[in-house]
Amino acid sequence: MYIRVARRSLAGEGPFTVFAPVDAAFEALPDGTLDTLLRPGNKAMMTFILSCHVVEGAVMRDAVADGGGPTEVETMGGRTLAAPADGGTLPRHPGLQRARSRQKAHHPMTSSAPKTAPPTAPLDETWVCLSGGNALGAFHVGAWQAIEDAGLRVTRLSGASIGSLVAALIAGSAPGRRIETLQRFLSRVGEPRAMIGRKSAVARTLAWGHRALFAPAWPGMWEILPGMPPDRALFRRQRMADLIDEMVDFTRLNDAAIEVTVTALNAETGLIEAFRNTQTALSMDHLMASSALPVLFTPVRIGEATYFDAGLAQNLPLPPLLDRPGNALILALDLFELQKPLRQTVDGIACRAQELAFAAQSAQVIDRCDLENRRFRHVILSDPRDDFAGKAFDYGRGVLQHRVTLGRRIMRDALHDLGAKPPAQTVS
């Protein structure tokens, strides 16, 4: 099975050498690990793991035995494989080559099991997880400012919904201009406020759209009338697509100086799927799919599958960052609180229900993840001022900047005296 998947994953003319684990290695995995990796939604994770066992070129046994050559080789996954030169078993043949027969390619890989060093993140790396929440995502902008203020070296980002767009804006900008890009984005989506109140402004947005993001669809909601053709959403997002196209440098994004994973919910299988710029070229469709909140926005088709907003099932895309071990600092930025007082009004109850729909997801995701010995921080937006049901669609300029300020302060506090804090902690 391993070799069949590896052969399909390799690109180029070769030759390639595959360091394939024996059956005993698979049997040593925790129960359910292999089944989880083989799910369609974990294709990117599985491909990465496979690539960390593949070396471009013919790596022969004699080249690394008895001190006759290097004992470390770089894999196609960007990790170093340590090949023992002191009696460990190594492949006797060049491995997978397109010109070789299937039988010849399989033999050396099932007969030996070199010791491989699992890909491990250095202590100075930071991985950042960005959750969804529409206009609440301005919090991520302030948090990123605090991350840059602290001089952290971010090497991986994962994003769901608005988090995926923020990740693309960051990774798609030059290192010295990322904050400028994020602030410019907020200036484009921020709406002026005159005499109209916040709730009225949100109601207007949900009725008439947003000048920089989405416009009412036709027939949209009027499909319920006799004779009207069917529609798939209440709004069209061509405005948002134009803005993304203007502000995200997809070439730079896919250069993968920062690894970016975007998640989306497969509308038919019900599985979260991860798209990673080290495995596939991220496009406009991936960002639109990750934020396709039904019934407001049209589902997005990629290949043969149709996708909804990832936040419906996994608003905090933490699992894609846990596909490899290491000492990296993991920062999970969340936009909804799990615990807070309940206001006994229709608006208060509606607001709390919305918060719990997403915050409870995050709690379950974190509970299911193995965070033992991980340097993990769960950083949550907490703002009594935003205690009303429509807050996720409040794009008021002042409100957005207030969230930026909160993000910077809360993240700064989370990072303060990091070494003195316990391994896993929630900060809000």
Automatic annotation (TrEMBL):
Coiled coil: none annotated. Residues 128-322 form the PNPLA domain. Residues 1-81 form the FAS1 domain. PANTHER family: BLR7027 PROTEIN, NEUROPATHY TARGET ESTERASE/SWISS CHEESE D.MELANOGASTER. One of its GO terms (biological process) is lipid catabolic process. The keyword Electron transport does not apply. Keywords: Hydrolase, Lipid degradation, Lipid metabolism. InterPro entries: Acyl_Trfase/lysoPLipase, FAS1_dom_sf, FAS1_domain, NTE, PNPLA_dom. One of its GO terms (molecular function) is hydrolase activity. This is PNPLA domain-containing protein.
